[in-house]
């Protein structure tokens, strides 16, 4: 991924700038975590090593609790999951107690200018704390035992954005074939009709109970019926078993 980024920057010229949006485990410098103990590297470390003097800024994000869109395993359909309160003693727990219910942005001195404290105890951002990592796969029931990376925050990032509670993006609609898990996001419209398409309407609206006497099913599903039947948009669809009463000229 770092090589691809280098090729893109070379293609767009020396004045180009890029913003790379990734999980903390990819963005934060691996040398400030236990990843370095097993010889692992990531994008943040490689970009710093290659382009430190060209304005590289690594920004991390964290929250104490909320919801997230993730999957139970690789290849599974993503769903909305609750994020439990952060583990006691973790970085997120520390910030939750310090700025309860608020947001905060921390900007750290350049990593090459940082040095050991002259006297007394180091600042909290120079100490090692567990830092929660949530990726494409997340299991909330194991959050306290398997989702915290030992981190020296001021060395891992150039800035850190803390949000006490976060929610999954409202624009992330459930994947097709995932009934009953979450609600659809903003409705997509059939470009030829300007109406919601069939797959973007909740199942209970597409298949209402016959006892309700509602006709919304016909109105909602009609935009896609012509596509399914192979009839040109706007053409009148004939019911099966009937012939047209219109005579040929």
Topology of this protein?
Elements: H1 2-12, H2 24-27, H3 43-51, E1 59-70, E2 79-83, H4 91-98, E3 103-107, E4 128-132, H5 143-146, E5 148-152, H6 153-156, E6 159-166, H7 203-206, H8 216-229
Parallel strand pairs: 1-6
Antiparallel strand pairs: 1-2, 3-6, 4-5
What do you see in this structure?
The protein is α+β, with helices and mostly antiparallel strands and 249 residues long. It folds into two domains: 165 residues, 3-Layer(aba) Sandwich (EreA/ChaN-like  fold); 53 residues, no CATH class. 23% of the residues lie in helices and 16% in strands. It is built from eight helices and six strands. About 24% of the residues have low confidence. A hairpin with an 8-residue loop joins β1 and β2. Strands 2-1-6-3 form a four-stranded mixed sheet.
